[in-house]
Amino acid sequence: MRIDIITVVPDILKSPFEASILKRAIDKGLVSIHLHNLREYTTNTYRQVDDYQFGGGAGMVLMIEPIDKCISNLKKERSYDEIIYMTPDGETLCQPMANQISMYENIIILCGHYKGVDQRVRDHFITKEISVGDYVLSGGELGALILCDSIIRLIPGVLGNETSALTDSYQDNLLAPPIYTRPAEYKGWKVPDVLTSGNFPKIEEWRENEAYKRTQERRPDLLE
C-alpha cells in the first residue's frame, strides 16, 4: 500500500512512522508513506498556502491552487483508490471503514488546516471525507495518523499474529472481552478459572458471552 499525505506541517507526521508497528510495516515493504509539503506547490514569494475567506469571517482557508497542483502531480504518476480529506464534518471513522481502506493499493490523505480548505477542493478532488470524532483539532495531521494506524495494522504481515486484529473491538460489532495475563493471582485478585482450564471451547464461549455483556453495558447502540 502507498499512502501520500498532503500537509502544511510535515514534521508533525514524521516520528510516528519511525517507531513500533508502523515502522515495522514500512521496513517490511508492506506500506510506503510519502509526505508532501503543500508549500512546495506554491508560486508566490512567501510560499503562502492560505488566504482570507470570501464574505468575511474569522479564520484562514487553504487555497485551491497548491492543492490542485499537488494532487494533479500525484495522479499523473498513478491511479488512486481514494482521495481522503480529514475534516470534523466527515464520515466518522469506524472499523468497517478501516477494513475497507486497508485493502486499497494507493490513497491520498489531505490534511485540513486553519479554517479548512476551499470548498472547490472538496467538490472536485476529494472522494471521501473522514472525521475521527465530534471535536475539532488544529489540523488534520493527527487525524491522518489515526487513520493510517487503523488501516496499516490490518495489512497482512504487519502484526505478528494476523488473527489478533480479527478479535479486536468493533470487528463483529462487539467490544472485546476482558483479557488477563500472568500471574494467575495477584494480591488475591484471581483470573477467571475458565481461562486457565485449558478447555478452549469453554474459553471461547466465555469470551463471546463477556464480549456481548460488555457491549450491552457500554455500547448498546452497537447491538441495534
Task: Tag the structure with descriptive keywords.
single chain; two-stranded antiparallel ribbon; 224 residues; 9 strands; Trp Operon Repressor, Chain A; Alpha/beta knot; 31% helix; five-stranded parallel β-sheet; alpha/beta
Number of domains: 2
Q: Give the name of the CATH superfamily of the largest domain.
A: SPOUT methyltransferase, trefoil knot domain
Largest sheet: 5 strands, parallel
Q: What sort of overall outline do the alpha carbons produce when their principal axes are compared? A: elongated
Shape-level CATH architecture of the largest domain: 3-Layer(aba) Sandwich
The CATH class name of the largest domain reads Alpha Beta
Distance between the termini: 34 Å
Helical percent range?
A: 25-40%
Overall number of strands: 9
Order of helices and strands: EHHEEEHEHEHEHEEH
As a whole number of angstroms, the C-alpha radius of gyration is 22 Å
Beta-strand content? 15-25%
Per the CATH scheme, the topology name of the largest domain is: Alpha/beta knot
> Residue-averaged pLDDT, rounded?
95
So how many helices?
Answer: 7
Low-confidence stretches: none
**How does the helix and strand content classify structurally?**
alpha/beta
Strand order of the largest sheet: 2-1-6-5-7
